[in-house]
Specification:
- By secondary structure, this protein is α/β, with parallel strands linked by helices.
- 45% of the residues lie in helices and 15% in strands.
- It has a single domain (1-201, 244-291), classed as Vaccinia Virus protein VP39 (Rossmann fold, 3-Layer(aba) Sandwich).
- It is built from 16 helices and seven strands.
- Strands 3-2-1-4-5-7-6 form a seven-stranded mixed β-sheet, with helices on both faces.
- Helix 2 (45-60) packs across helix 13, helix 5 (76-86) packs across helix 6 (106-115) and helix 13 crosses helix 14.
- The longest helix is centred in the middle third of the chain and has 18 residues, at 209-226.
- The chain is globular and about 55 Å long.
- The protein starts with 25 loop residues before the first helix and ends with a strand.
- Bound molecules: S-adenosylmethionine (SAM).
Length: 355
């Protein structure tokens, strides 16, 4: 595997403990560090999270879209809502857009479709994984007047372009310290930039006993019903003949070969480092993992105002399009009584002068 300028860790993540982890309890950082100890990690935790993310997404890039159909099935409608909030703030000369953690280009595609290719004057697609970025280039090259693709944070930060709109979709939970990264990116954002942050995991869902109880009941029922579905059997059959290893297994091999660990890490360790702010069973479903929209707001600070937010998936990963009337009713009831407590949430922010 070759590495380019993207080898440089994101500078914002290099803060010393404990201030780098404002979203996580120190006991959870310690639990993750204790989990890592038997494998002899060779980097401090923040840099390890970034490196392992790169290796994981390098492996996942080849079939990311196939592995994550939920993104393209369920999120376009949500992005339409978010971009409708952003639209009135569009600059006369056209939007300069930054898609941070662009992956294969999902958010950029929504933005170009929704705002219109003639209204997007400049698009920057940034991803720490050059392999993901190549997939994005394949889709977005030539989509608007000016578009650039970069994996180098130094190149991005040195750029004179001030972006009016920043997008992240399902990215913040991969960053060691989302607040530090946001504050770093402020250098390349316009003074009144809009920030659409799509699809992040919510800790409020894990803390809501009723959502948890009903999600468990749903999973139990669905487990049996899904075996009646021919599609399920076809997928199982496909998996049986699929000889490729999982991105986590490939990343574990690559991380060991690169000398990031003294012992080859398990796939569980890799998954915890990749989805750094998402609860994993190994850490005992810690209360601090996942985000809370109100804590996020405090972490972003007075320089950012929340314009809009929406929480959804109150039954976890239940297949929304296939719920029967009973579960649709329960879902609607949870949404009404606990509007902020879905498993995922999206937000729109606007930058403002510090008060
Ligand atoms: C779950 S994918 C989401 C991709 C895309 N935004 C989408 O919605 O399909 C997370 C992306 O974040 C990128 N990523 C992870 N850590 C990053 C970091 N520290 N800086 C920039 N991008 C990062 C990964 O390479 C990956 O492409």
């Amino acid at each position: 595997m070759t590495y380019s300028a993207s080898d440089t860790p994101i500078p914002g993540a290099r803060c010393a403990r404990p201030w780098a982890w404002r979203n996580l309890l120190m006991s959870d950082v310690s639990a993750i560090e204790a989990m890592l100890q038997p494998f002899g990690p060779k980097l401090e935790l923040g840099s390890l999270v970034e490196e392992v993310n790169r290796l994981f997404h390098a492996a996942e890039a080849k079939d990311y879209d196939r592995r994550h159909p939920e993104i393209r099935d369920e999120l376009p409608a949500l992005w339409r809502e978010m971009l409708a909030v952003a639209k009135p703030y569009g600059p006369a000369g056209g939007w300069h857009v930054l898609d941070f953690g662009c992956g294969t280009g999902f958010a950029s595609e929504q933005i170009v479709n929704e705002l219109g290719c003639d209204r997007v004057a400049h698009l920057t697609c940034f991803d720490a994984s050059p392999e993901m970025l190549e997939k994005c280039r394949g889709k977005l090259q030539g989509a608007v007047r000016e578009v650039r693709f970069t994996s180098s944070i130094d190149e991005l930060l040195a750029s004179p372009v001030k972006h009016h709109l920043m997008a992240t979709n399902s990215v913040l939970h991969h960053l060691p310290s989302p607040y530090d990264t946001l504050h770093l990116l402020e250098r390349v954002l316009a003074a009144d930039a809009v920030y659409c942050a799509g699809h992040e995991p919510s800790k409020r869902y894990y803390r809501n006993a009723e959502c948890q109880r009903l999600a468990r009941a749903f999973r139990k029922e669905w487990k049996w019903r899904k075996y009646l579905s021919p599609g399920q059997w076809l997928t199982k059959l496909g998996d049986l003949f699929d000889r490729s290893s999982s991105p986590a297994a490939e990343a574990a091999e690559a991380a060991f070969a690169k000398g990031l660990f003294a012992q080859k890490p398990t796939t569980g360790i890799i998954k915890q480092l990749v989805d750094f702010h998402v609860p994993q069973s190994q850490t005992g479903h810690s209360a601090s993992l996942g985000f809370d929209v109100e804590t996020l707001e405090a972490g972003f600070g007075p320089g950012w105002q929340r314009l809009w937010s929406k929480s959804y998936n109150h039954l976890g990963e239940a297949p929304l399009g296939r719920l029967n009337a009973k579960w649709r009713g329960m879902l609607a009831d949870l949404q009404t009584r606990y509007p902020l407590d879905g498993a995922d949430f999206s937000t729109v922010w606007r930058r403002r002068d510090p008060v």
